[in-house]
Amino acid sequence: MTRTLRGAIALAGATAFCLGAVATSGAAQPGAAPARQGEVKIGLLLPESKTTRYEKFDRPYIEAKIQELAPGAHVDYYNAAESATTQQQQVNTALAKGDQVLILDAVDAKSIQSSVQKAHDAGVKVVAYDRLAQGPVDSYVSYDNHKVGELQGKALLAALGDKAKSGEIVMHNGSPTDPNAAEFKAGAHSVLDGKVKIGKEYDTPNWDPNNANQQMSGAISALGKDKIVGVYSANDGLAAGIATALKAAGMNVPLTGQDAQLDAIQRILLGTQTITVEKPYKPEADIAATMAVNFAQGKPLPADLTPTTVTSGSGQKVPATLLTPIVVDKGNIKDTVVKDGLYTVAEICTPTYAAACKDAGLQ
Fold first, then answer.
1. Please, what is the end-to-end C-alpha distance for the chain in angstroms?
2. 321-338 b/e (C-beta count within 10 Å ≥ 16 → b)
3. In whole angstroms, how large is the CA radius of gyration of the chain?
4. Whole-model pTM above 0.70?
């Protein structure tokens, strides 16, 4: 774990000690009353569930940290299922229920701006989580997303080696409505441009693995499988669809990813994916929860909780914390995702992967 991540965890823990212990959390109930004096009511709005991280890690970690920090806190949870319109409606519902703070991971950073403004006008604080929404956001926590793209690009170049100039790569970027996707893309291009030939490049709506599968199949048909030497995938969900298309074509070339999904770790063990980028969820979730509880209790954020400032797509300067991502490859699975508690060796090394796990020193 990096020094930056250790510092973030320590910071969140220290703030937790100051704020207090166990909270209760529940689903939103129709007609819920506005918060009473001293009560903490927080709306948690996540964008989708096709990427496994949101339901498996982000939601439970955020809710648990809020429970730890604010006794009696109530959490209204919403998942937008990739619909920007649904998320706008969910913000309206959260405001009607009297939530004092919104932790918002935007489906569409631009279209949510009017909802952020509505929250601001109602005196409700907005913590932008993982993706920087436009509008008057009060704080932001994420990873250095340009760095993520750089790490992916460098890993792809390293895996290509002497083949970097002998063929073409295909790039699968993320959703055009996700501001993080633009940063991943820019970071990757900053490394790859001039060092590889990009035969095909796609932005992938809704981060949909099925779209990525179709894009990859189309690229193979257009370019020819013998011409493709590597594939940039912005995350592991896309990589799953891409890997299926590559396998169907009888291909196995370097392939990147992000989010350290379990299936990606298993593909790395089998050699059908080269790397993923881990962004440990707990430090990010803990900081978001700490920000939200501070706001709900009327406390200013400590300066060391937001050591930097970022500029949103709508021009607002937002106090922020940006954590440092980690590259995961076959050689460091035990020292990254296992050590960080994302998965146990037993979860990774099911019978299908037992031999590969043994080769990688996991068993």
1. 22
2. bbbbbbbbbbebbeebbb
3. 21
4. yes
